[in-house]
Amino acid sequence: MKRSPVTQAELDEALQALPGWQVQDGKLHKEYRFATFSLAMGWMVSAGMEADKMDHHPEWTNVYNRVTVDLVTHSLGNQISHLDIELARRMEALGDGRKP
């Protein structure tokens, strides 16, 4: 995975394929809601393992059944990169147990 900023066109295309994701405060952002706290924590563990494999870690918080995720690449001057988009894709692939 290349460690480089995305163009606006690449970001626009990626957002079309990432439901619920948006750019907020210059970061790729989404709030996930799960049926229970346990499901939220289980998802965070799985997502954390994916992030660690990529050596690219999210800014995130958890409150009960909600997980708020912000993705940005600090080593590129806090720009959204191809790594952020790939991590968002992997997070989406882990979607089991979320509330609709």
Question: How would you sum up this structure, described in words?
Answer:
This protein has 100 residues and is of the alpha+beta class. It has a single domain (22-93), classed as Gyrase A, domain 2 (2-Layer Sandwich), CATH 3.30.1360. Helices cover 39% and strands 21% of the residues. It contains 3 helices and 4 strands; from the N terminus they run αββαββα. The chain has a 4-stranded antiparallel sheet, covered by helices on one side. Helix 2 (37-54) packs antiparallel against helix 3. It is globular. The mean pLDDT is 92.
What's the short version?
This protein has 3 helices and 4 strands; from the N terminus they run H-E-E-H-E-E-H.
The CATH architecture classification is 2-Layer Sandwich
Rg (CA only): 13 Å
CATH fold name, please?
Answer: Gyrase A, domain 2
Q: Which spans have pLDDT < 50 for at least 5 consecutive residues? A: none
Q: What brief labels describe this structure?
A:
alpha+beta, 39% helix, 4 strands, globular, 3 helices, four-stranded antiparallel beta sheet, 100 residues, 21% strand, Gyrase A, domain 2
